[in-house]
Amino acid sequence: MTRIPSKAEILDWIAAHPTHTSKRDIAKAFGIKGSDRIDLKRILKELEAEGHLEKRKKTYRDPERLPPVSVLQIKAPDGDGDLFARPLEWHGEGVEPVVLVMPRASDPALGEGDRILARLTVVQDADYHYEARLIRRIGTNPRRVIGIFRKGDEGGRIVPIDKSASTEWAVAENATHGARDGELVEAEQAGPKSRLGLPRARVVERLGDPSAPKAVSLIAIHQHGIPDHFPDEVIAEADAAKPMGLKGREDLRDLPLITIDPADARDHDDACYAHADDDPKNPGGHVIWVAIADVAAYVQPGSALDREARKRGNSSYFPDRVVPMLPDRLSGDLCSLHEGVPRACIAVRMQIDVDGNKIAHRFVRGLMRSAASLHYAEVQEAMDGAPTDRTGPFLEPVIKPLYAAYAALVKARAERQPLDLDLPERKIVLDEKGTVVSVNFRDRLDAHKLIEEFMVLANVAAAETLIKKRTPLLFRVHEEPAPEKLEALRETARAAGLSLARGQVLQTRHLNALLNGAAGTDDAELINISTLRSMQQAYYGPENFGHFGLALRNYAHFTSPIRRYADLIVHRALITAHGWGDDGLDSAEIERLEQTATHISETERRSMMAERDTTDRYLAAYLAERVGNEFEGRISGIARFGAFVKLDETGADGLVPVRSIGREFFHFDAEAGTLMGADTGMIIAIGQRVKVRLAQATPVTGGLELELLSIEDKPMPAGGGGGRRSPAGRSVKRKSAKAKAKRSKIKRKVERKRRS
């Protein structure tokens, strides 16, 4: 019996012989004859059903796909009233795919000839190929408003929640979408603007109670002043953009570059590929390609798109939504490296030796086509011996070489010793209604680390190239810790029976030695948190002061221009340095690099605060039903008004108010970071293991109030919560004040003697 080839072998052969893809050609190539052709036919049918192949007449080819976000033109309704649309940018060679538009109740009416931006979903076993959900109509950009709906006699009004917005919006009776009085709603402008009366709006989504899950991120967005509406001129520029062709670019479409992202990623701005280096001068070495979406080709300096991107500084990410730096037409379509779709890119080819040291690199402006859009877990599973039909064809030619290159980079990383903190990242999982169903900690797979190392290497290459070519740029700067913060870290380490080197130039290897010494002990989390708190905050700047945390002298962000303006600046600098076009850095942009750096560093912090507030509110809502329950945790911070506790189960931070601890006064020592009982001498300090009871959870503010039950397994004294007087009945505050006055008097006497 003839051996029937595997699915992976068939796909590889079809990819290598695109002009000989009939069933007869495939059978001939693998020597399949007679009844064995039945098995071949079965495998081809399975590949077709799984979406790996598409049958056109009598040949099998890799299916041509539409981007998940596409521009469509509405056709006339068919006899059943269904609305279909045709894609305006179909790159395939076969029959144009059929797209069914799925309108929602709140969508505006669409007519024949309308052009829309829509999000597509592939459909199996139907007489059409995609279902489309409207994002917006091309050429229209209705303003959005978030506010409280107030019902009236004829319709109602919307009172914005944005503190800076004083104008209310009128809602007609037929435009309320069933909203009830007091509900939080999202609405959009209805009809042209008028000079007389209130502007008119129509409700597009009811968000319910202002403290409800779907309202959480929207409130944070408005409270922190994050722009979430694109001006008309910005949308017009994005809508006018067309896909870039091959002119002036290197053709990279034959490189099997793949994207590896979270499973729920909507945009893909980086792709990678690696293979063994065939240069005899580099035995055991590797070649790594990193391709990044060419955003600079679409966002020209000084344009409306550019001004808005700079204003936003970065995209902001929340558990239920993203506020993008660029409109969907770019971030979700033209600048996203979707599988099987030609996309403009700036790519870097890097050579590393057997020990992971970069020995050469070069940048190109190219046109690529992603071979696959994979996610971290499935890539890791394939590498661990469980490939699927999606990852199987890429295991040998793509995935294994990626991991081989990563293994070499791990050696270089170990030699360099960047700061190696072990702080698990939380992931809040929501259901369709926006309610928190679980709080997990993200797995740190080798697939994650692989992409991180590739991106770091590409960022280093970008900085080195621009320094060498004397082209202005924005560096990612991370300065070493301030002396006072280092001293606080030494005190914490000493309390845990560990030490941090003193009297020498601090390097990350010294901090790693401290972290390694704490690893596996009860103090590991404390040392990791304390080390993180000793760090300076990273920022952007035109001056290069190095990146302390990564232990790198030259570092610039290059790999995410869809979501970070700093990366777009670096892309433009590379365009200028290589003479690739007139869309590089202009003189005006160079002159204001310092102002731009300050601004985008501030927008980054703004997004971080909004994202943190949103997370806190979601966690408070999640825990609200568990008030009265007991939790294990660790003291994570000390303040005059109480102690902060990080709960083990969720990573949520709650406050134990000092007024609720025992029946004594607590002295706050800012230098030592402790609270000490005036009568019992009990010390509450960062890092202590505690058991607490959840006393209150307030989703609107994100606050958690806790009651302290035990410290280091020692129960708190009985009673408490009410008084703060000493057992003798004397006022501890008064006693403390007298002692303080006496100390001051002695101090003044000593100073007078010293001067005399």
From TrEMBL:
Question: Which lineage do the record's taxonomy fields give for this organism?
Answer: Bacteria, Pseudomonadati, Pseudomonadota, Alphaproteobacteria, Rhodobacterales
Mark out the compositionally biased spans (Basic residues): 731-756
**According to its UniProt record, which reaction does this protein catalyse?**
Exonucleolytic cleavage in the 3'- to 5'-direction to yield nucleoside 5'-phosphates
Q: PROSITE patterns this protein is in? A: RIBONUCLEASE_II, S1
Signal peptide as annotated in the record: none
Going by the record, the broad EC class of this enzyme is: hydrolase
Do the record's keywords include Translocase?
no
**Protein name per the record:** Ribonuclease R
